[in-house]
Amino acid sequence: MATKKLGFVIRTLPYKIEGSRLAMTHAISSQTVEIYLADGDLVEPVVCFIGDGVLNCLKSQQAMKNYGLTSLEQHIKNSLLLDLNVLICKEDVDKFGIKEEALIMDAEDIGGETKAKIVPYSEIQKAMESVDHLLFC
Amino acid sequence: MADLKTQTPTETLDVLGRVCPYPLVLTKKQLEKMSSGGLLKILCDAPASAEDSLPRYAEKLGYGIEVVKLEDKGYWEIFIQKK
Fold first, then answer.
1. Which positions ≥6 away from A125 have C-beta within 8 Å?
2. Is the CB of B21 less than 8 angstroms away from the CB of A78?
3. pLDDT of B37-56, one tens digit each?
4. Domain count within chain A
5. Residue A76's domain is classified under what CATH number?
6. Full-prediction pTM beyond 0.90?
7. Which of B22, B29, B56 sits opposite A35 (nearest CB)?
8. Which DSSP letter does residue B50 get?
9. Chain B residues within 8 A (CB-CB) of chain A?
10. Ramachandran region, residue B15 (left: φ > 0; alpha: ψ -120 to 50; beta: rest)
């Protein structure tokens, strides 16, 4: 029995590039692979937003209106609904002058119980060092 | 195994309109909250989840499962009994 830890580090802007959508999709999908693994083996993802990537976490995204794309807002909420560990870099949030209330911190409207966490980069660094596989998007 | 679909479910989970992987991960989450012996009824219209991932998951854990395809409604009712 073993737990494989996966880290998804999102550094890219939300739209006109598929990096963040790819990372979120893989993190969410990783929760289903245990059906193909040996008994007791698990996969545990952590999703980290750093640099420009923190802009993915803004509320009230107008992706459909502006780009004709589905919003990443729902993707982030779905990851919280599925109890994924979502970390947002505090220094980068501060750098952009974003207030916590402007960020998607929970998914209570769809029944989610887990909240995203705004943490210092040092904690994200620790998370990155603790995983078995790391994907930068 | 007892006929699960004739029993009154402990909980019902509606994942209609959701595609893979959501039906499976939401089912896992719901089952984790339920007690041993509890019966979960899932409403699902995603073929891959209804016919592959959900049965595979239940069988892997040794849970009872019964999958009923409702042709007229275009979705499945899946009954999973937690061991």
1. none
2. no
3. 999 999 999 999 999 999 99
4. 1
5. 3.40.1260.10
6. no
7. B56
8. I
9. 20-22, 24-26, 28-29, 53, 56-57, 60
10. alpha
Domain span at residue B56 reads 6-81
Average pLDDT of A122-137? 96
Segment B57-80, tens digit of pLDDT:
999 999 999 999 999 999 999 999
pLDDT, tens digit, 9 for 90 and up, residues A70-111: 888 988 999 999 999 999 999 999 999 999 999 999 999 988
Identity of the amino acid at A119: V
Q: Which domain holds residue A88?
A: 3-136
Partners of residue A82 in chain B, C-beta under 8 Å: 25-26, 29
Distance CA B33, CA B45 (A): 23
Report yes or no on B63 lying in a domain.
yes
Tokens (6 digits) for B42: 């899932």
Element (H, E) at B54: helix B54-61
ipTM of the complex in this document = 0.72
A113 CB near a chain B CB, below 8 Å?
A: no
Q: Which residue has the tokens 């779905």?
A: A78
